Amino acid sequence: MLEFKGLTKQFNDTVAVKPATFTIPDGQMVGVIGRSGAGKSTLLRMINRLNEPSGGQMLFQGRDVTALKGRALRQWRNECAMVFQQFNLVGRLNVLTNVMSGRLFHHGFASSMMGIFTAKERAFAIRALDRLGMAHVALQQTDTLSGGQMQRVAIARALVQEPRIMLADEPIASLDPMNAKVVMDALRAINREDGLTVMCNLHTLDTARHYCDRIIGMQDGIIVFDGTPKELTDRAAREIYGAEAEEAFSEAMTSTTLRPQPAAQPEARRVVN
Amino acid sequence: MASITTNGPDNGADRDPVSVFERHRAQMIRDRMVVNVTLGLLFVAFLAWSVWISRFTPDRLATGIPRIFEYFGTVMPALQWDVLFDARNEAGRFPAGSIGYWYNDFWKYLRLIWETILMALTATILGTGLAVVLSFLAARNCTPYPWVGAAARRFLEFCRGVPEILFALILVFAVGIGPLAGVLAITIHATGALGKLFSEVNENASMRPVDGIKAVGGSWFEQMRYGILPQVLPNFTSYALWRFEINVRASAVVGFVGAGGIGAELSHTISFYSDDRVTAVLLLVVLTVTIIDLLSERARHALIGKESLK
Questions:
Q1: Is 0.90 surpassed by the pTM of this model?
Q2: pLDDT tens string A214-224
Q3: Who among A76, A101, A158 is closest to B226 (CB)?
Q4: Domain locations in chain B?
Q5: ipTM score here?
Q6: CATH fold for domain B106-308
Q7: How many alpha carbons fall within 13 Å on the CB side of residue A249?
């Protein structure tokens, strides 16, 4: 259980996230939606402390993770894996090394500096890649991959961390609809099969509705909506997207191809497989 | 449509966009002119000052330049075609005028040149290693604490600000005459120069992979090793090779103060003999440096070429 107690973030004189208090039970798939600049990214990056909170507390299984330092902080980051919009892989290393870098926390100084990984770690990484259908590119240099492939490698890297929580910061914003579906399906599968808590920033409303158990809407740093996809009516969504809703919010603009379209779905599967 | 080319009825000349732009442009040209003229005058003033201090006058050039040729005249070997390739005679000596006579000490020179190259190689390897570590501390985007970054940058400035020959002088005093002093002196200077270049390369690297490694729970060392190093390694290698060229030249010079290598021999022949032995050594040094420059340039280009394909 991840508890937020008045967690807040201030950059100079602008408040990016106003004190946020809510709780995420284990195994939930949460989507955070809102316009760009609403504070979604900051909220997510505060969880693994890539952004330092300016105030408030965050507890994971009762342990205060806002106060962690040094090795304890790195251990917490190892427990809550993150997937980024721009994948944040090391382009010049091969795919396998990128995935194995998810094990770095468990390494000593010498073995990590010399890049020595065990056969067990290699096997683990290959299994994770295989699960995402990427084992065949394991020895390819990462920057030769397409965006969708890179994101799947990034998810594999997150998986070998054996995390308790998976954070995804706009995981599909740089992908075409087809790859977006593959990546979201993978996150969903991880949530369902492994029971991981998944917290995912999304800018597409449909995706959030389709994949998440719970949707959190943010506007100007405030959580303005927290409920199930069913409760997220078009009116509620318009509220999240603010005053300029009529112009900014249009189902067609924010959609991936994820809206149930009986004719399109089987074809999509065929192309992916 | 007509309003694009003609002024509207209530648009006076001072509000017409074209005349506003033209006035602005004229102002900018005037400002630029003032700056250029000032800089030009300053340049001329400093040039005059420097000419005056160095007494760089035509009559001194006229008397001085021929003396350079005169000196080279005295150190030119007196080669004679008929005995040029002759071997040692029965007394075990090369006849005067032969190449063997000119390069009587060839093997000694060669040994010293080899020593010079090895000095440069050792100094380059040590300097590169130190520079890699320091460059991560010095780069503004990588440094673990800002004060560490500032300290590392000051240290690198000191290392490259002091000329090698000065370090060599001090180190000869400290560790004694010989190559060790030279290697240390060149290492210090190379560390300073490479550390600066490396840290600039680091500052241009993408921070995204670093965020990625940070997010898996990687330490600062792991963030640098996996996030930055793979991105900058080709550039590092290219700079290190280039530094090797410079270090070969430097290690030929530090010998003048007793810090090992061919420099000591060169200094010795110049001050004691000033005969054809000077050209014998000089020619070998120039040849060595040229060959190493060419090889290293090839290697660097191969490296860059390989990079640009990706």
A1: no
A2: 989 888 888 88
A3: A101
A4: 2-54, 106-308
A5: 0.84
A6: MetI-like fold (1.10.3720)
A7: 18
